[in-house]
Amino acid sequence: MKLLTAKNMGFCFGVRRAVDMALAAAEEHGRVFSLGELIHNRQVVTELKEKGVVPIDTLDSSTEGDTVIIRSHGVAPAVYYECRARRVNIIDCTCPFVMKIHDIVSKASAEGYIIVVTGDPKHPECIGINGCCGDNAVFCGDFTAENAESRFNDDFKERFEKNAKLCLVSQTTFDRSAFEAMAELFKKNFVNCVVYDTVCNTTRDRQREAAELSSKCDVMLVLGDHHSSNTQKLANICAERCKNLKRIANISEIPLDIIQTNGIIVGVVAGASAPDSLIREVITRMSEQEKATVDCCTAENIENVATAATETAEQVVETAAAAVQEPVVEEGETTFEEAFEKTLVRIRNGQILTGSVVQIVDGEVCVNIGYKSDGFIPRDEFSSDPDVDPATVVSVGDKIEVEVLKVNDGEGNVLLSRKNVESKKVWEEFSTDADSEGKIVDAVGKEVVKGGLIADINGIRAFIPASQVSTKYVEKLDEFVGQPMKVKILEVDKQRKRVVASRKAVLAAEAEEAKRQKWAELVVGEKVHGIVRRLTDFGAFVDIGGVDGLVHVTDAAWGRVKHVNEVLKVGQEIEVLILNVDQEKQRISLGYKQLQPKPWTLAAEKYPVGSIVEGKVVRIVTFGAFVALEPTIDGLIHISQVGARHVTKVEDVASADASPFPAVQIS
Ligand code: F3S
Asked: Residues with Cβ < 8 Å from 129, sequence gap 6 or more?
């Protein structure tokens, strides 16, 4: 027997990377969940499970705080959102080559291209790709290079307009020759079709080797799980050239009866998910067969072949990168590498980018920034105003500017900030606007610091000295924390990026304006409402809405008053009449008594003739005595009426300080 083995066997770069990352995570966390089986190989999945990498079918099986592995196939953007919504930690093991396809598809879809995929729409990788274009991709399904044309004519030729914008990509493990045949037909028939050869070069090499080996072997052994897509593709390629083909998922499936035939040539290829142990065991078992000679891997270097199949991740990265650099393409065709370079946005911390909003969940905004993964803005990074609900400010599809806070927040997410961009813009305005000092802007009190208050002006911290917080003395500045306010910019230090502001200046200006308006509204002879603010010897100052007027003591009452406090009290709300307005001298004369009834108009009713009242002698004259009935009404008792008998001098009967004068009758 002669044994021919492929050079490229065992885990591909993407699978090895995913397995290594998952095992490292399991070691760190004790147990992690892989969303779907990490690779299509039962044996490996069982081993991984024993080491703490537990497969789950849906996120329903996870709870908050769990760690979930995204396998090398990648997932649709919606799965990332769901992970975040469920607050599970993500370890993203999506193969970088698959990520490139996500980038291409997201961008092309955003530019209005219809995405066409050569691949199986039910394969997890294709489901993820489809999710990048809103599940609107058109799938070509399974076909070969030979039947590509009939598939194209049946299903696609009439399906699109001749000038339709089409973007053709492939599942990474698709048969390259079949893809190329289909790509040729699309390019020929649709003028606006762009083609990205996204068949993974690892796959390409394996398929090429499978074709070469199978064309010279009597028996082909295809190693790998029966559910593995790329292994199935290898099997298909081999089957076209070799009639005796055997799929081997474990060592017990080696067809010893066939390979014991004398002079037979046996070829061995392995899919990307075939574990090293299986490859090693199969080659060892085969080489142990009597008379076996091993090409490619001789009996002595079996270990080397197995080792080659278990290259370190770094080695495979180099191999994969080298493979990408030498694509087999025709002139005018876009290589995977070129496509990748074109679509890949390189980002760094602190960079400001424009992205489009793709989802808003629980106050977090997910933004497509053209990077291999979407970024998200946590709620507290959306606006400097914590009360702002992002859903009321932006909608899905909106373009917004964001700053990259972290390219990787430790869970594979790009952390973004809109707040920082906004504050930078405000600062930009401040520093470029020569008139920024003196401007009045909206702010929110943030924190009390030594000597004053820090206020937030659209993300910029401004210092308000304690003396500038209010027009009145403020005992506790804490009451302004969280309060919206208007402030006047007093000083902008461009070098030190420092802003000093004043709330007091705004309040003073507002009061001044209110005063100005009030003066304009004052009309002599009009009745206005006021509050007594201050009493003096000459009258009372009354606030009539931002301006004070004076009620002179003589205008406080109809009768004689020694002091205005006999009539008015501080804090009393009264109606007053505007008597005079002197804007030049800033004086307003008000009358209080003018709105009170004159006492004499009621006297006749109050003191009818014949009634007997009590009064107080206030003045004595030769012809009689004046008696005060109330402060503003004096009555005269003629000398002839002072006593029952004749009186020559009133003083004999009454004195001015005697009080009260009993029982006088009104006549
Ligand atoms: Fe990645 Fe290619 Fe493997 S796409 S997962 S390296 S087959």
From this structure: 74, 98, 101, 102, 105, 115, 117, 119, 137, 169, 171
Tell me what the mean pLDDT of segment 513-534 comes to.
Answer: 90
DSSP for 354-389 reads: EEEEEEEETTEEEEE-SSSS-EEE-GGGT-SSTT--
CA distance 138 to 116: 5
Say what the pTM is. 0.48
Alpha carbons 434 and 309: distance in angstroms, whole number: 67
Task: For ligand 1, say whether the CB of 229 is within 6 Å of any of its atoms.
Answer: no
d(CA 273, CA 229): 10
Position in ligand 1 atom list of the atom nearest CA 316: 6
Distance separating alpha carbons of residues 518 and 526, to the nearest angstrom: 13
How many CB atoms lie under 10 A from the CB of residue 603?
Answer: 16
Residue 203 Cβ < 6 Å to ligand 1: yes
For residue 210, give the H/E element and its range: helix 201-214
SS3 helix, strand, coil % of the chain, rounded to 5?
A: 35, 30, 40
Alpha carbon 483 to chain centroid, angstroms:
23
- Residue 535 pLDDT > 70: yes
E-assigned strand segments in 155-248: 166-170, 193-195, 219-223, 244-248
Instruction: Find out whether the beta carbon of 14 lies less than 6 Å from any atom of ligand 1.
Output: yes
What is the distance between the alpha carbons of residues 338 and 103, in angstroms, rounded to a whole number?
13
Task: Report, as residue numbers or ranges, the catalytic residues.
Answer: 125
Of 123-127, 187-191, 291-295, the range with the lowest mean pLDDT is 291-295
Question: How far is the centre of ligand 1, averaged over its atoms, from the C-alpha of 55 (Å)?
Answer: 20
* Distance from Cα 72 to the centre of ligand 1, integer Å: 7
Q: Sheet holding 138-139: strands in order across?
A: 138-139, 114-118, 166-170, 193-195
Are the C-beta atoms of residues 67 and 88 closer than 8 Å to each other? yes
Longest dimension (CA), the chain: 173
CA-230 nearest atom, ligand 1: 7
- CB of 12 within 6 A of ligand 1: the answer is yes
Beta-carbon contacts of residue 531 (< 8 Å; ≥ 6 apart) = 542, 543, 571, 572, 573, 574
Q: How far apart are CA 234 and CA 6, in angstroms?
A: 12
202 CB near ligand 1 (under 6 Å): yes
103-124 mean pLDDT: 92
Contact criterion met (CB below 8 Å) for 267 and 213: yes
Q: How many residues does the chain have?
A: 667
Q: What is the pLDDT of residues 592-617, one digit of tens each?
A: 999 988 877 778 888 888 888 888 88
CA of 202 to the centre of ligand 1 (A): 7
- Tokens linked to 279: 């490859």
9 has pLDDT over 80? yes
Using alpha carbons, list the distances in angstroms from residue 456 to 373, 417, 501, 667.
Answer: 32, 16, 11, 79
Of 605, 603, 539, the closest CA to residue 566 belongs to: 539
Q: Residue 314's CB: how many other CB atoms inside 10 A?
A: 9
Q: Distances in Å between the alpha carbon of 194 and those of 86, 167, 488, 637?
A: 38, 5, 56, 121
SS (H, E, C) 108-164: HHHCCCEEEEECCCCCHHHHHHHHCCCCCCEECCCCCCCCHHHHHHHHCCCCCCCCC
